[in-house]
Design brief:
CATH superfamily of the largest domain: Butyryl-CoA Dehydrogenase, subunit A, domain 3
Number of domains: 3
Number of strands: 10
Oligomer: single chain
Distance between the termini: 49 Å
Shape: globular
Strand content: 5-15%
Largest sheet: 4 strands, mixed
């Protein structure tokens, strides 16, 4: 594993990541793939730190690492969250040999991701020999296309099941096409397309059984991780807004203070929801799914209101390219666009009407 050689003795992964994030949040970088920052996370031990998360301390540590990275660089946060998701899926559904190989890869600092979205007709896997399979098709919105080392994809097998497949893609740059990733935010994720046609894998690449990927509550409740990354960006916006108010003298204006108060209370409240959602998800509690679905909307609303407040309070200066508020707002505006937000909240509300999903201290 990459050692914590550049940090004081006794520092945890969280302390190292917070140190990095504080530095990264000082200025904007070029909006390309954050390879150097990902390498820094490897050196901090963050790539291998969360193969498995236990209720309690390690859940809080992962949440706070995701927040810290999201507050400094949302593109990096998206890449890192995908890495953690892939590593945990392999740890959960892989066999002993696959888990041992994962350990070796993580020791070497290799990066992982998960790609599920695909253009029609989708990615297919076909058995061609006893221990050989071939892939046909592509993935879209493929975060880190052309930059990651190992990718976990879903592929339709010959029975119609959705099979998890681990594919080594390091060096397969010609298969990646990021020309279509022309977006105003999250440019550094390089979420283009990747063509898997005629790639072959052995038995070591077939992870778990068909349809493991969508097993609940892990599939839906796992969304808590991206809400933590989003939350970190909203918190960073609040900090930069506060710094502007103090530096500009606007903190003496009661209208500005009222606007700031709204940002502060909504963001702090969202943080409480995200932390509880994380613990419910990692313990696979019965109420985890509706709680996480509700949390998605709460973080989204906090983000939207804070972005609007920052634009109103800071004004034109918040739209300049060198402004951290500009970069965070552009990235967050896109990253908040997660799948079916209205349906997610509706599902949560329906479950909440049926039974209070808060857990302790239920109201009905």
């Amino acid at each position: 594993m990459y050692p914590l050689t550049q940090y004081p003795s006794g520092w945890s992964v969280l302390e190292a990541v917070r140190h990095l994030a504080a530095s990264w949040d000082q200025e904007n970088t070029h909006e390309d793939f954050p390879a150097e920052r990902l390498h820094a996370l490897a050196e901090a031990g963050a790539l291998a730190a969360f193969k498995a998360v236990t209720p309690g301390g390690s859940t809080d540590a992962l949440l706070d690492v995701l927040r810290a990275i999201g507050g400094a660089d949302l593109s990096l946060g998206r890449v890192y969250e995908g890495h953690v998701n892939a590593v945990q899926l392999i740890s959960t559904y892989g066999d002993a040999e696959q888990r041992a190989t994962l350990d070796i890869d993580l020791e070497a600092g290799r990066t992982f991701g998960v790609w599920n979205t695909e253009p029609t007709p989708g990615l297919a896997i076909r058995k061609v020999a006893d221990d050989r399979w071939t892939l046909d098709g592509a993935k879209s919105f493929a975060t880190g296309a052309g930059h990651l080392d190992r990718i976990l994809v879903t592929a339709r097998d010959e029975t119609g099941g959705k099979q998890l497949v681990l594919v080594p893609i390091a060096g397969e740059i010609a298969r990646a096409d990021n020309t279509g990733w022309q977006v105003r935010g999250m440019r550094g994720t390089c979420s283009g397309a990747f063509d898997f046609s005629d790639m072959t894998i052995g038995r070591e690449g077939v992870i778990g059984a068909a349809n493991d990927y969508e097993r609940e509550p892990r599939f839906s409740a796992g969304a808590w991780r991206f809400t933590a990354v989003q939350l970190g960006a909203v918190e960073a916006l609040v900090r930069h807004l506060r710094d502007h108010l103090v530096a500009s003298g606007k903190s003496d204006d009661p209208i500005q203070r009222a606007r700031f108060a709204t940002c502060l209370t909504e963001t702090r409240s969202a943080g409480l929801w995200v932390r509880r959602a994380a613990h419910l998800a990692e313990t696979q509690a019965a109420e985890a799914i509706p709680f996480v679905l509700m949390t998605r909307g709460i973080v989204e609303e906090a983000g939207l209101r804070t972005m609007e407040a920052a634009a109103r309070s800071v004004g034109t200066a918040s739209f300049f390219a060198k402004s951290r508020i500009d970069r965070i707002t552009r990235d967050l505006g896109l990253y908040l666009r997660q799948p079916v937000p209205d349906q997610a909240r509706d599902r949560a509300a329906a479950a909440w009407i049926e039974e209070d999903c808060w857990g302790d201290d239920r109201w009905w």
